[in-house]
Amino acid sequence: MPVSSAAKKPEPASLPPAAPDGLFAGTSGWAYATWKPGFYPANVSSKKFLSFYASQMNSVEVNYTFRALPTPKMLAEWLAATGEGFRFSFKAPQRITHFSRLRDCEGQVTDLLTALQPVGDAGRLGPLLFQLPPNFKLDLDRLRGFLSISALKEKKIAFEFRHESWFAPEVFALMTEFGAALCIAESDDLASPEVHTAPAHTCFRLRRNGGYTDAELAEFVAKFADLTDAGREVYAYFKHEDEPTGALNGAALLRMAVAAG
User: Fold this and answer.
1) Which InterPro entries match (predicted)?
2) Which of 37, 97, 120, 220 could form a disulfide with 42 if both were Cys (CB 3.0 to 4.6 A apart)?
């Protein structure tokens, strides 16, 4: 992964052309008033944030679902505010990842998928992210049991492991068996190995404080092009902060990808 401690502040985004096939980029959420006027224009109301966001990026990671399930009305509004090529990824509820810790979760998984069915029916559903707590250490049997839940079959899912014990060949082999993606998460504390375990999708969470330089974004563009050329959809999400650095990075990455062809 590219590394730099001196990322310059990105330029404000302009409306990009359609992104290359298979590349979806955005941030973790969109409802941040502090992104005005650096990302959202000063005259854009909070009700119009998502539609403006979708003019700059083509995906978002929804963290709302970590604590509550969205209502059909909410999902209908989100779908209406975004174009057909826009994809929503959702963070799995904490009751699955943090409270039950992947044990006996069939009913909870069914509830989640039922709630998100309008997005799936619209063909707009990206990966479901299961972000495990940092104190959740390797438990291969627990992971196998969870991956065996029938409702998850043929769903795009990704796991962000935040304890290094999970970064093991037997884990990668199990995820490959079930077609689950290892979320390649880059942060200031722990970087996931870059191992692509799902045949048709992969997920990056680019969480470094201060953002990324244009040169680093160009490296990501080249990396993601190789992955999409190999038949994988790439979902890349930048960190949300009080400053709109992540949103500007995401929009810039898509513009670079379009320019690169």
Assistant:
1) DUF72, UPF0759_sf
2) 37
